[in-house]
Amino acid sequence: MSLVTTKEMFKKSIEEKFAVGAFNINNMEFVQAIMDAAYKENSPVILQTSSSAIKYARIPYLRKMIEAGLQEHDIPVALHLDHGPDFETCKMCVDNGYTSVMFDGSKYDFEKNIELTKRVVEYAHERGVVVEAELGKLAGVEDDVNVDANDAIYTNPEEALEFVQRTGCDSLAIAIGTSHGAYKFKGEAKLRFDILEKVKELMPNVPIVLHGASTVIPEYVEMCNKYGGNMPGAKGVPDEMLHEASMRGVSKINVDTDLRLAMTAAIRKVFTETPEQFDPRKYLGPGRDLIEETVRHKIKDVFGSNNKA
């Protein structure tokens, strides 16, 4: 199977009330783990790269690794740019075979965000590529995203409707309380489902996206810290809340931090228990296995996309 856009998988997700997992990739082990997990759960999946991941791994390598996965697994896979910072980055990805791009204009005011998003939409649509945009501002730190909690802004549902109508974007990332990175909540986790409900009421057929939605799996944080890590107080969005979001109309849920934690925890364990080990396969392999286990859990128990391919 060739790469696909997100149009059909999102259409099905709205009709059948599940979310598609969008998992960030950086190297071969991530690609293999995610695609193996999606295949075993018979799920559509989105593999996404930040601009930092592109700088690290380079587009030809990322594309070819995914194409190799598609030779093994006949499932719907979209290749997506996560948090495209400008038109040039979005254009580069469209021109290099991505089937979906996100332009993140959330740092701009409403009118400027519309103007810049519309430019990306026009270029991408002419070439058969779909576009995700963002309205509202998520707090947190992850790759090129760095927003102070005091600057976070919830999405206004009426503005969201106007934004989608004026830009023609295919999906919209909204801010309802999630945040980037491993330190999402200081107190009790809370999401503004009332905002999501209003957005879906105004735009029932527009796919909605949640960024900053890793669970920051406590077992992995504990494992990292046990084997030499230093992540006190790391806390994410509980699985129960993410499952509720998928049932309430969120079509795409982004996961990055959980995969990083899985890889790091597994590697730390190997290094601590067998310090003589220097074969990369012996520590990257367990990392890959734990990422696969994580993705299967997300697909089956949280997003509900298993058997939806």
Structure, explained:
- Helices cover 48% and strands 16% of the residues.
- With 309 residues, the chain is of the alpha/beta class.
- The protein has one domain: Aldolase class I (TIM Barrel, Alpha-Beta Barrel), CATH 3.20.20.70.
- The strands form two sheets. It has an eight-stranded parallel β-barrel with strand order 1-2-3-4-5-8-10-11, surrounded by ten helices. It has a three-stranded mixed sheet with strand order 7-6-9, with no helix packed on it.
- Helix 2 links the parallel strand 1 and strand 2.
- Helix 2 packs parallel to helix 4.
- The longest helix has 24 residues.
- The protein starts with 6 loop residues before the first helix and ends in a 6-residue tail after the last helix.
How would you concisely characterize the structure shown here?
This protein has 309 residues and is an alpha/beta fold. The protein is 48% helix and 16% strand.
What descriptive keywords fit this protein?
309 residues; alpha/beta; TIM Barrel; 8-stranded parallel beta barrel; 3-stranded mixed β-sheet; 48% helix; globular
Which CATH class applies here? Alpha Beta
- Give me the count of strands: 11
Count of helix runs? 12
Assembly context of the chains: single chain
Average pLDDT over all residues: 93
The CATH homologous superfamily is termed Aldolase class I
Q: Considering DSSP H and I runs of 4 or more, what fraction of the residues is helical?
A: 40-55%
CATH topology: TIM Barrel
Can you name the CATH architecture?
Alpha-Beta Barrel
Overall domain count: 1
Strand order of the largest sheet: 1-2-3-4-5-8-10-11
Gross morphology: globular
Please outline the major beta sheet. Answer: 8 strands, parallel, barrel
Distance between the termini: 12 Å
Quote the beta fraction: 15-25%
Secondary structure category: alpha/beta
